[in-house]
Amino acid sequence: MAAEPFQEFHRPETPGRTMIPRPSVDRRVLVLAIARFADAVGNSFLIVVLPLLIASGRLSGDAFGLSPAFITGLILSLYGLLNSLGQPLTGRLSDRTGNRKLFVLAGLAILTVANLAYVFVGDYVSLLTVRAVQGVGVAFTIPSTIALLNELASDGSRGGNMGLFNAFRMLGVGIGPIAAGLVVDGGPYPLSVAGINATLDGFDAAFYLAGLTVFVSYLLVTRWVSNPERTATTARMDLSIDVLAENEQKLLDPVFTLAVAGMFMAVAIGLIAAIEPIINDRLGQQTTWFGLQYGAFVLSQIFLQLPVGMASDRWGRRPFLLIGLAVLVPATLAQGFVTTSWGMLVTRIGQGIAGAMVFAPGLALAGDIIEDRNSGTKLSVLTMSFGLGTALGPVSAGYLVRFGFVTPFVFGAGLALLGFMLVYTQVEETIDYPGSDRNSGASHHAGATPTDD
């Protein structure tokens, strides 16, 4: 199916090397990015709203004997844990059926219902249940969406497509918490419908708005997104997940290696989420400062994802991955030692730069290797690892902080360093770029024997 580019980026011919196709962005990619922005706004509402809900006293019963910090981290992490564990299954099923759109819509429908169901939550058991259902909904959506993006791209546009998608996603993640705070603080809201007067408190208003934004995503995908023709032709192929490399010179499969490194990065980035009160007390700052620090990572992603993704189409994926993971090590470690609010802000910007250099190039490199073959199953390993890292980060910080404030950040920096070493030793380049030693006829499959693409 022919792509419908809204913009094309040209680059000059370079003598002596095979040029990859000039990149373009399919209209469906743009719609998927906008839809992801809308549901990210709704889902990120809950990053702010759920901790406030727990602290408000609105929930009945105890918190299973757990401390406020730990129960908050557990509830926030449950979403990421369940969606991560479910992604390989849903990715595999979407490969078998060849119908990505069906799974995307099913996930968005589940998320819409789950976000609205928070209105009726009154105790910790029901809160955990709804949060779990929300995680299941995301497990349906993410692998199929990423597989669609991969199948709609070429080698010359894959990095740009992934960067565009992630930039919109992070824009939603950044706007959501800000909007949620305004909605909750602005309540209660008087309502008058058919002569009946009622009052809607700030929490319920936030939950209704979260459900509405995801429903908008559902409508966008329904109207504007279709399955690529080649998705159906590659369905029901080999759906195994490789751990060990086919190339005897490497130990681990490159996609699996990227997944592990991505999980380590996500853990390091998510450490501060569950220890906000401790950070505020240590730095002597108000909640506003923490919001700025948390959002600094998001803003860095918004501005850098697309240009980094496009640059990886031109200059190769691996250099950006290595630079990003190298930057992540000191940026994470420094968070355990900073003593000022400005210092913490700088470290979060550093983590944002690192994340932008890893997310889009990492997904693009995996897509180069996988191409159209069982991409739902294979790419779900990466998306699962990101989600799993996001879930483990807050829980790890909530537990490790008892051994000293610096301990979680030493742990996160160590994982980032290990991720750098894994990528450096186990992942090869997939793009011919100026100055590379790859032959123009080399395979695009890192760690595999040359094939006719």
Walk me through what this model shows.
The protein is mainly alpha-helical and 453 residues long. The protein has one domain (24-426): MFS general substrate transporter like domains (Growth Hormone, Chain: A), CATH 1.20.1250. The protein has helices at residues 27-55, 68-97, 100-117, 124-151, 158-186, 202-224, 229-233, 254-269, 276-283, 287-315, 318-334, 341-370, 375-400, 407-426, and strands at residues 5-8, 24-26, 189-193, 196-200. A hairpin with a 2-residue loop joins strand 3 (189-193) and strand 4 (196-200). The longest helix is centred in the N-terminal third of the chain and has 30 residues, at 68-97. The chain is globular, with a radius of gyration of 22 Å. The model is unreliable at 1-23 and 439-453 (pLDDT under 50).
Integer count of domains: 1
Helix content: 55-70%
Query: Mind describing the biggest β-sheet?
Result: 2 strands, antiparallel
Shape: globular
The assembly state of the depicted protein chains is single chain
Walk across the major sheet and give the strand order. Answer: 1-2
Termini Cα gap: 18 Å
Backbone CA Rg: 22 Å
By CATH, the topology is Growth Hormone, Chain: A
Strand residue percentage: under 5%
Highest CATH level, the class: Mainly Alpha
Summarize this entry quickly:
The chain is mainly α and 453 residues long. It contains 14 helices and four strands.
Break the fold down into its secondary structure elements and pairings.
Elements (H helix, E strand, L loop, with lengths): L4 E4 L15 E3 H29 L12 H30 L2 H18 L6 H28 L6 H29 L2 E5 L2 E5 L1 H23 L4 H5 L20 H16 L6 H8 L3 H29 L2 H17 L6 H30 L4 H26 L6 H20 L27
Antiparallel strand pairs: 1-2, 3-4
Helix pairs in contact: 1-2, 1-5, 1-6, 2-4, 2-13, 3-4, 3-6, 4-13, 5-6, 5-10, 5-12, 8-12, 8-13, 8-14, 10-12, 11-12, 11-14, 12-13, 13-14
